[in-house]
Each structure stands twice: as structure tokens, then as C-alpha cells.
Amino acid sequence: MSIERITDLCRAFAAARQDVAQEVATAQALIDAIKAKYAPEIATRTAAMAAVYDELHAAIEADPAQFTKRKTLVLFGVKVGFVKGRGRMIWKKSEQVVAAIKRLLPEQQAVLIQTKEVPVKAALNALPAADLRRIGVTIEDAGDQVVIAPQDGDLDKMVAALLGDPATGDDDAPSEEAA
Known about the structure:
Pfam families: Phage_Mu_Gam. The chain is α+β, with helices and mostly antiparallel strands. The chain is built from 6 helices and 5 strands. The chain has helices spanning 3-62, 94-104, 109-112, 121-125, 129-134, 154-163; strands at residues 72-75, 78-84, 88-90, 138-140, 144-150. The longest helix has 60 residues, at 3-62. The chain starts with a helix and ends in a 16-residue tail after the last helix.
């Protein structure tokens, strides 16, 4: 194969890439136009949805008695009610918990204590609450928490894609002032 043939193929490849780039630019321009047209109304409706969500959350939180028999209900495709919170473990001094594990749970020491001698949260999660209390660990935020989970989760993803994600630094998302 000669350098002339390689040169011709490079020229053809560059031209093909340019064609692809033009199509991508055209598609992106159409996407941007659609976003510009629909994003403000979607943002307005999303704000209205958020206001109703807050009101629904407050109503559920204010009347937990409605969810004593069944902790959750699905109404109009929306799961509402209460779910058990995962909770989080806290302790004042790691040294005290390590000492308590060594004293009270010596057979589980290798699993519950890292070599740098701090409690292992993942392993402590597996312990019963009674053992956690014995070693000085308390669990916070483990009570019932309100859950509102639409069963059509794709809608939220589509809205985020259309409006951009502020968390990723996408500046294409309209500000609240523009909505």
C-alpha cells in the first residue's frame, strides 16, 4: 500500500467524520430548541408538583394514624406512607466502643474492629440492638420516615435530562427566576 492510498483514505475518513459532526450538531441544535421551548413550562409544572409534594408530605406526617394497619398505600400510582429508616450509628469515642467490643464481644473482634482500632460500621450494622447498647453505640433516625415514591420513575429522569442537572454543573438549566 502506498502513502498516496493512505492519504486518500485519511481524506475520506476525515470527510466522513465531518459528516457525522454536522449531523450531531444539527441534532443538538434541534434538542436545544426543544429544550428552550419546553423547559420553562416543565420547570413551572415541576415547581407546582414540588409544592403539592410538600403539602402531601406534611399531610402524611401530620396523620400517621392513617398508616397503622398498612404502612404504605399506592394511590394513583404513588406509594405513600411510612417506611423504616435505615438509621445511623453514632458513638462518642471510638476507643470506648473498641474496648467494649474487646471486653464484651471478643469472638467478633476481628470483624467488628479495623486494624487501626475503630469500630467497623458495616459489621456493627449486623449486631442486635441489645449488643449495640452494651458497647455504647446508639442508633439515631431509625424511626418511621415518610415515603412518597411515584411508580413511574422515568419521569423524574426525563425532567432532569431536559432541564439539566445543577449538581453536575450543567448551566443549560433555567434558573428559578427564569421559570
